[in-house]
Amino acid sequence: QLQLVESGGGLVQPGGSLRLSCAASGFRLDYHHIAWFRQSPGMEREGVSCISYTGASTQYADSVVGRFTISRDNAKNTVYLQMNSLKSEDTAVYYCAARRGFTVLQTLCSGGYVMDVWGNGTLVTVSS
To answer: Which DSSP letter does residue 110 get?
Structure first.
């Protein structure tokens, strides 16, 4: 069974940091592009950050540029999202998703592709 499992979410104060992990089981991430999305109550899902299967290319939403960093460790079959300087508006359920094949990263991050595998999400709450 192909699975993605997110972890690392939790409650953090504004200005704090969290590192989310997206671990794959049942398949290798080596040839998959990965996207992080988030969704807040009453809001549409939005792309946060994406990384190509090699890790050579990354994409970020304007709202997180300079604060979030996406990376991957294919040896560990895991992708990470380092989130610094967190704001209350970053509160959301964060999902990772994987796609294999020809992909334009900007289109991936805007939700323009059907993804092969989705995780179940991890909740990030930024509050004092």
So the answer is: T
Residues 103, 41: contact at Cβ < 8 Å? Answer: no
Give the pLDDT confidence of 39-65 residue by residue, as tens digits.
998 999 999 999 999 999 999 999 999
DSSP per position, 6-60: EE--EEE-TT--EEEEEEEESS--TTEEEEEEEE-TTS--EEEEEE-TTSS-EEE
**Whether 122 contacts 32, CB under 8 Å:** no
How many CA atoms lie less than 13 Å away from 121 in the CB half-sphere?
Answer: 12
Residue 112 pLDDT exceeds 90:
no
Residue 6 dihedral angles phi and psi, to the nearest 5°:
-90, 150
Euclidean distance between CA atoms 36 and 114, whole angstroms: 14
